[in-house]
From TrEMBL:
Organism from which the protein derives: Larinioides sclopetarius
GO cellular component: nucleus
Domain DNA mismatch repair protein MutS core span(s) in chain numbering: 2-252
Keyword tags: ATP-binding, DNA-binding, Nucleotide-binding
BP term (GO), one: chiasma assembly
Family to which this protein belongs: Belongs to the DNA mismatch repair MutS family.
DNA mismatch repair proteins mutS family domain mapped to chain residues: 268-457
Protein name: MutS-like protein
SMART domains: MUTSac, MUTSd
The keyword Ubl conjugation appears for this protein: no
Length: 523
């Protein structure tokens, strides 16, 4: 606790003392409520034990000793009357000083010359009692502030301050009363701090169980308000959720599309999700992890029905937060997360991986992902529950759909100029990431997106990427590539050279009549 730490160094502020008192007082009330219902819930029974009489003692001491109202006015630790008799005596003396000093000032005025019309006795900490006299006209003109039998101290705002025989007697008789009061109250504060620090374990225990109770109450309220249901916890290894929802995302959108979760039992334990950008893959992965986690901490879950297996660990590889303090690249951070799952995940573990391998070149990232999945596939039913989202659509060629692996995607409706996200999980493999549509929605110009699509097509066809203004050069090169492919496939023993020459002549003179597909025909 921050307040306990500040008390150890005697740095507790007024707000700290007030917070501590309010905490102890209200915790005492919570303890009484829980004590009356200790047989209903285990948490109530634990609180009734932890919220002991020491808590009452702390609240009682704070209330008895500290005058919070005066503390706020004077901005320093103030002790209530009746705590210390010596302190009470000093405060009575200090509070009676104004009347007493008025009497002394009247006596002083009788001994002063007639040009001094008024005076007063004041008290200043550290300086003691002083005689304050308004500067006379003579003093202002001559700058001579000397008065017989008085010792000049200083002048402020035309008020001259002196030490007299009477003020010296007051110093000797009463002393520096205010400083003595401060010192005494500081001593009492330190003693109070020592007593509270001796019972710090009680306060720490109170905070721990108060936090637990607060969390349980928050989960209970959320379960009621958002229609969460009680999950079934099973040792059978089946992870089945009907109409599962993300507990936070559904509060941020007008409507949320629920999706099922099926893993283990008769279902494959390895799920590979592909789909367009912004289609809901990451939300689904987090939804899976959150539902599993919430069930294991005793919470209801956002779903229509849920059967959750007992999990020993939940591994996530979803976000690599780079930092100069770590001295690690994003890829290395991602590798560390994934290696933890590879080395420690069991058949009772849950692994969530979102686009593993994206932080390095695509070939290396894909190879690492394939090797990792093959490692888990070899474990068969002993494999952990794996939910993996990726843009490596070629994974389907390495892992045909089977009882161990299932490919899922987020459904969309595609048109020529746009796509509509349905956020519905279906079986299948995405054919494209639709990055161009996502770029348009993000505000990129149509010209840039159109150029991006042409470059992507060229790279996919393993063709050279030409400048945008050189389309005629591109057509010419395509014709040359067509002729080259035809020549490479030409077999002089079985083909007619005359036909080949006619093809070349036609390709040069009539470029639009020769397509890339024609080049694959044999002569």
């Amino acid at each position: 606790m921050r307040i306990i730490t500040r008390m150890k160094t005697a740095q507790a502020s007024m707000n700290d003392w007030q917070s501590l008192y309010k905490t102890a007082y209200h915790a005492m009330l919570v303890g009484e409520i829980c004590r009356s219902r200790a047989n209903n819930l285990e948490i109530f029974k634990q609180i009734s034990v932890v919220f002991s009489t020491d808590l009452f003692r702390i609240a009682s001491l704070l209330n008895k000793i500290i005058d919070f109202e005066e503390y706020a006015k004077q901005n320093h630790f103030v002790v209530k009357p009746g705590v210390d008799s010596e302190l009470d005596k000093m405060k009575r003396t200090y509070n009676g000083l104004p009347d007493f000093m008025t009497q002394v000032a009247y006596q002083e005025l009788q001994d002063l010359s007639q040009d001094v019309q008024q005076c007063s006795v004041i008290y200043l900490p550290q300086l003691g009692y002083l005689l304050a006299i308004p500067a006379t006209e003579r003093m202002k003109e001559t700058k001579d502030y000397s008065i017989p039998n008085l010792r000049f101290m200083f002048i402020v705002n035309d008020i001259v301050h002196y030490k007299s025989a009477n003020t010296k007697k007051l110093d000797a008789l009463l002393g520096d009363t205010l400083c003595d009061i401060y010192d005494k109250e500081t001593q009492i504060m330190h003693k109070l701090q020592d007593v509270i620090l001796e019972m710090k374990d009680v306060l720490i225990g109170v905070m721990e169980y108060a936090a637990k109770l607060d969390c349980l109450m928050a989960l209970a309220v959320a379960a009621k308000e958002y229609s969460w249901i009680q999950p079934e916890i099973s040792d059978e290894g089946e992870f089945v959720v009907e109409k599962g929802r993300h507990p936070l995302q559904e509060m941020c959108v007008p409507s949320f599309v629920a999706n099922d979760i099926c893993s283990g039992g008769c279902e494959s334990k390895i799920k590979i999700l592909t789909g367009p950008n912004s289609s809901g893959k990451s939300i689904y992965l987090k939804q899976v992890a959150l539902i599993a986690f919430m069930a294991h901490i005793g919470s209801f879950v956002p779903a229509q029905r849920a059967k959750i297996p007992t999990l020993d660990k939940i591994f996530t590889c979803t976000f690599a937060a780079e930092s100069v303090s770590l001295n690690l690249s994003g890829f290395l951070i991602s590798l560390n997360q994934f290696s933890g799952a590879l080395n420690n995940a069991t058949g009772k573990s849950l692994v969530i991986a979102d686009e593993f391998g994206k932080d390095t070149e695509s070939e290396s990232g894909l190879a690492l992902l394939i090797a990792s999945l093959k490692f888990w596939i070899q474990k068969a039913s002993a494999s952990p529950h794996i939910f993996l989202a990726t843009h490596y659509q070629s994974l389907s060629t390495f892992f045909p759909q089977s009882s161990l692996v299932k490919f899922l995607t987020m459904d969309i409706i595609e048109s020529q100029e746009d796509i509509a996200y349905l956020y519905q999980l279906v079986e299948g493999i995405a054919t494209s990431s639709f990055a161009s549509f996502t770029a348009l929605k993000a505000g990129l110009s149509k010209k840039i997106v159109k150029r991006n699509m042409k470059i992507a097509e060229a790279l996919k066809a393993r063709e050279p990427v030409l400048p945008e203004e050189s389309s005629w050069v591109h057509d010419k090169l395509r014709r040359y590539f067509t002729i080259l492919e035809k020549f490479t496939a030409f077999d002089i023993n079985t083909s007619n050279p005359q036909d080949f020459l006619q093809f070349v002549n036609k390709a040069i003179k009539e470029p639009h009549s020769v397509t890339h597909q024609n080049s694959k025909e044999t002569i």
